[in-house]
Specification:
The complex is a heterodimer of chains A (about 575) and B (about 375).
Chain A: H1 6-17, H2 19-22, H3 25-53, H4 63-68, H5 75-106, H6 112-124, H7 127-138, H8 144-153, H9 163-187, H10 191-199, H11 204-215, H12 217-233, H13 236-242, H14 250-259, H15 265-293, H16 315-341, H17 351-355, H18 360-367, H19 369-402, H20 408-416, H21 423-436, H22 445-470, H23 473-481, H24 486-515, H25 520-523, H26 531-540, H27 544-572
Helix pairs in contact in A: 3-15, 3-19, 3-21, 5-6, 5-9, 5-12, 6-9, 6-16, 7-13, 7-16, 9-12, 9-13, 10-11, 12-15, 14-15, 15-21, 16-27, 18-27, 19-20, 19-22, 19-24, 19-26, 22-24, 23-24, 24-27, 26-27
Chain B: E1 2-12, E2 20-31, E3 36-40, H1 47-55, E4 62-67, E5 70-74, E6 79-80, E7 89-91, H2 103-112, H3 122-135, H4 151-163, E8 170-173, H5 181-198, E9 202-206, H6 209-215, E10 218-223, E11 226-231, H7 233-238, H8 243-248, E12 253-263, E13 267-272, E14 275-280, E15 290-295, E16 301-304, E17 314-324, E18 328-335, E19 338-345, E20 355-359, E21 365-369
Helix pairs in contact in B: 2-3, 2-4, 3-4
The chains are: A mainly alpha (about 575), B alpha+beta (about 375).
Chain lengths: ~575, ~375
């Protein structure tokens, strides 16, 4: 292979500056998409830095940090609490999610469809409802579980208002995320690797420990990343379970200094930047780890139809684990919510209360105009941000995967950047931008739309680019050779082929948008409340029965949405693929 | 119909490699109307990149590409017609059948996306699509989902889509490589028949020499970004002009030697360490030139040693092994230090350990200068 003469470079360069070809509709669409991603990802963080490190007078200052970390809320205390909470939730979610995925994919555990449903349902329950349900289950005074075990274990046995309680509630809630990632990892693993270990005389558990687990390491690393970022950004659990007992983490501090009067933006910025720094370090360490994990390339993307592992007599204990998880993570919280939603005021369940159920709370939320408005706002925002994100990410992933535009890797990273920005930090950053920038967005729904759009960009990008990689380039090239313009090709070939992936991403984003609380709580204004905000307010007002009814309706709507979406996705999917 | 001149296409080298890789390094060729012209070579030889440059899917660094009288690309005149304005038909290796459309829609797509002023009416589109589907015998499957077709049907569908615009030039990128062996043979004849009957000019890219020999009017053998030899299939096979061509197309025996003397009628006598060989060649090689002889296994005659005497073009050897291949019998024969592969009809089969006579025909032994 010879090296190129200068002619090649020159020709390519001249191509690039040929003005007649530069201003095509294709270039315009691509440029707008790229500019928007850059703006959304970078500008808020820039404002955040600027607003936190500059004093009113415009000089560099650390005053905001000094005020944030007075002795009562030392940086080390906040960091330590955050760490314990995060590690604790990961220690619950990762083994549990991995075990459920393994049982579901690789063994003949009974009631597989129950396993699958059990593992996914918590994904649909909004975090705030899940947390409130757990307060009714395991708070020292009124918790139903505590009352049930009182004769055996004494009064106030479980205390949900503790770091352990917080980690448990968070861990149970994020287990489905681990489950989903691990299901994919186990599915793509060549089962003959396990079978050959069994034939070598390995015991089942030895095989699992020495062959299976090391092979799915990349999946475990990915799951760890998500759980760790999630734990550090979590707001609902630390706010509802931590604050009453004075267990503070960064997110709850941010909320507190902004909800007080007057709001202390500088201090919120200092907390936000600290949290961002810790999250970034965590993500960096994780990516170093997972790079080492890539040496296991035996995990291919090929489809296998593995013979499930015979559990033998272990089938029933395995099923016991599943049933226990389903009971603790789904049945109990859902039962509590349902029970409370049928009562006029909270009292422990008894024959009397169970025979005096009422629909009053449902009637209340059906007539309450603020609730109706919140439903409309939440679903409009969810559908709007999901549609916008998926369309935009279809274009961005096309640029990243298909073109040779210089700097496309930067675009890829930019779209991923908001992933490490916790919701409250994004909220603070957007406050900084739109309190200062002349755009009249603050106090409208638009600022919420921007927040959701930015936060869910990374998820949309994953869904879109994964599908994009699966579409052979020749499918697009053949459209081009057939005479199609870029837009015709994109609209008639690329988009339809991406559709199953785009719909999956769309459903996911609608779901998480409707549940969103941590950005909304800083950015909403009266009249623009979303559902999670209404629930939050009702909780603060002590309207737990109305809240439970609202929660039940919300969960029901989300279930319908996910089911319809999944059906729709299966329909537009290319049949034989 | 197609003129390609001094085509150069470079790619950025992979990490750790300096400079750019010259995938196509100054390729020039011309295709006559109605011909099926094959670019043949091993993977990485630049044949597909050349085809993609003609299609407009790659931008060459330098060179000229003309279809008929239209300049599609010229680095000097700074013209470049984008792929979607070239109006060429292309069949991709993977067929690139759109799985979300049915058979009819796949074929009508090129007509539907045409410029507004050149676009046909709905009924005309239906007629055109119907006609071309009939040609490839898929008319009865028009409403079938494209993914429900078999491999051979998908291949014909891809062909129909490429032909529906009635392009001046059809580009075929290894169109048969994804079919199983039997179907491939069938489609080979089918494709050739269609191309000849419709008078289509086509560029055909393949790494399969049998396919190239069976289908082409002309073959250009490519290696390392260059064309090594252009010729009719028979010439390429029987008169390879370089060691690479001889070795790539079919199996062959190489013998190193030197031009000993020349005789009238283009006859050369080449002396090799194992003996002399007389052969004919159009090439002008002075006495003393180092050459390589290429002799196809099936062109060497084999007979028991007691049926004649050794002499010019008749060497004595001993059978080492033999293998029955169904259509023929392969013998590995020791001659001096050398081992030659000899392919005989099944009527000739000599057991290992026997002495034999090898006969080399003067017309079918190619002389290749050693530096090529």
């Amino acid at each position: 292979m010879a090296q190129a003469a200068g002619a090649g470079w020159r020709a390519t360069f001249l191509d690039r500056v040929d003005l007649r070809r530069v201003f095509t509709p294709k270039v315009a669409i691509l440029a707008v998409a790229m500019a928007l991603v850059g703006y959304l990802a970078v500008v808020p963080l820039g404002y955040l830095l600027w607003g936190t490190f500059l004093s009113e007078g415009g000089t560099l200052t650390l005053e905001h940090f000094r005020r944030a970390y007075t002795s009562q809320y030392a940086l080390t205390t906040l960091a330590w609490n955050t760490l314990l909470f995060t590690v604790g939730s990961a220690a619950i979610a990762i083994p549990l999610g991995t075990a459920l995925a393994y049982l579901n994919v690789r063994t003949n555990v009974p009631l597989k469809s129950l396993v699958f449903a059990a593992s996914l349902v918590p994904l649909i329950i909004p975090g705030i409802l899940h947390t409130i349900a757990w307060i009714f289950l395991a708070s020292p005074r009124i918790g139903m579980i505590n009352q049930a075990v009182e004769p055996l274990l004494g009064e106030e046995f479980f205390d949900i208002f503790s770091l352990a309680g917080m980690a448990l509630v968070e861990g149970l809630h994020v287990t489905p995320l681990v489950f989903l990632l691990m299901v994919a990892a186990f599915k793509s693993m060549d089962p003959s690797l396990e079978e050959s270990a069994l034939l070598s005389g390995g015991k089942r558990f030895t095989v699992f420990r020495r062959i299976t687990l090391p092979l799915v390491k990349p999946g475990i690393y990915a799951a760890t990343l998500i759980i760790v970022v999630n734990g550090m950004s979590s707001f609902e659990v630390p706010a509802l379970l931590g604050i009453p007992d004075g267990i503070w983490v960064f997110t709850s501090r941010i909320w507190r200094v902004l909800s007080g009067y007057p709001s202390d933006y500088g201090q919120a910025g200092a907390y936000a930047l600290s949290l961002l720094a810790i999250t970034t370090v965590g993500v960096f360490l994780q990516s170093r780890l997972s790079r080492r994990g890539k040496s296991f390339q035996t995990v291919t993307g090929k489809g296998f139809r593995p013979r499930p592992l015979e559990l033998g007599p272990w089938r029933w204990p395995a099923m016991g684990v599943v049933v226990l998880y389903f009971t603790v993570a789904v049945v109990l919280p859902m039962f509590v919510l349902f029970y409370i939603s049928t009562q006029k005021f909270y009292q422990p369940p008894s024959w009397e209360t169970l025979s005096n159920m009422t629909l009053d709370n449902y009637r209340y939320i059906a007539e309450h105009s603020q609730v109706k408005r919140a439903f409309r706002n939440s679903f409009m925002l969810g559908i709007g941000s999901a549609t916008g994100v998926m369309f935009m990410m279809a274009i961005i992933s096309w640029i990243v995967v298909r073109t040779k535009v210089p700097g496309r890797w930067a675009l890829d990273n930019l779209s991923f950047l908001p992933m490490v920005v916790p919701g409250l930090v994004m909220g603070v950053a957007l406050l900084f931008v739109y309190l200062r920038a002349p755009l009249p967005i603050y106090g409208t729904m638009w600022i919420l739309l921007i927040a959701y759009f930015t936060r869910y960009m990374p998820y949309g990008m994953r869904y879109a680019s994964t599908s994009m990689y699966q579409i052979g380039g020749e499918l697009e090239e053949s459209a081009l050779v057939s005479g199609a313009t870029w837009w015709q090709q994109f609209r008639r070939v690329t988009l339809p082929l991406l559709m199953p992936g785009l719909i999956a991403g769309w459903i996911y984003i609608v779901m998480v948008s409707v549940r969103e609380l941590s950005s909304s709580i800083l950015l909403y204004s009266p009249g623009n409340e979303v559902l999670s905000i209404v629930i939050w307010e009702q909780w603060e007002n002590g309207q737990s029965n109305e809240l439970a009814a609202l929660g039940m309706v919300m969960i029901a709507l989300l279930v319908v949405l996910v089911t319809v979406g999944a059906k729709l996705g299966a329909k537009v999917g290319v049949k034989s693929e | 119909m197609l003129t390609v001149k001094d085509l150069v296409k470079t790619f950025p080298g992979s990490k750790g490699e300096k400079g750019r890789v010259r995938a196509v390094d100054g390729v020039t060729f011309e295709v006559e109307p109605g011909h099926l012209y094959t670019l043949l070579g091993p993977s990485g030889c630049g044949k597909t990149t050349t085809l993609r440059c003609v299609a407009g899917l790659e931008d060459p660094d330098t060179g000229v590409i003309k279809v008929g009288d239209t300049t599609m690309f010229s680095s000097n005149e700074r013209t470049k017609v984008p792929a979607n304005k070239r109006g060429l038909g292309m069949v991709f290796q993977s067929y690139a059948i759109w799985p979300h459309m049915n058979v009819f829609k796949n074929v009508s797509f090129p007509l539907e996306v045409a410029d507004r002023k050149g676009r046909l009416g709905k009924s005309e589109i239906e007629q055109r699509v119907g006609r071309v589907l009939e040609v490839v015998q898929l008319d009865h499957l028009a409403s079938r989902q494209a993914t429900d077709l078999s491999g051979g049907q998908q291949q014909r569908l891809a062909l129909a889509r490429a032909l529906v615009m009635e392009p001046p030039l059809l580009l075929l990128d290894e169109p048969l490589s994804n079919l199983d062996a039997q179907l491939r043979e069938e489609m080979r004849f089918e494709l050739k028949r269609l191309q000849r009957e419709m008078g289509i000019t086509a560029i055909y890219v393949t790494h399969d020499q049998v396919e190239a020999l069976a289908m082409s009017n002309r073959i250009a053998v490519m290696n390392g970004g260059n064309i090594e030899q252009i010729g009719k299939p028979r010439d390429i096979y029987e008169r390879p002009s370089s060691k690479f061509v001889a070795g790539f197309i079919g199996t062959t025996n190489f013998l190193e030697g030197r031009v000993g003397r020349r005789e009238p009628g283009n006859v050369y006598v080449v002396s090799t360490p194992t003996g002399e060989i007389r052969t004919r060649s159009e090439a002008d090689l002075p006495v003393g030139t180092d050459v390589i002889l290429s002799i196809r296994p099936e062109h060497i005659g084999l007979a028991p040693a007691d049926t004649g005497v050794p002499g010019p073009n008749t060497w004595r050897g001993r059978v080492e092994t033999r293998a029955f291949l169904g259509e023929s019998v392969d013998h590995l024969v020791h001659v001096g230090e050398r081992r030659l592969q000899v392919r005989c009809p099944t009527t000739v089969s000599i057991a290992p350990g026997n002495d034999v006579l090898l006969e080399f025909p003067a017309d079918l032994t190619s002389i290749i200068p050693a530096d090529r």
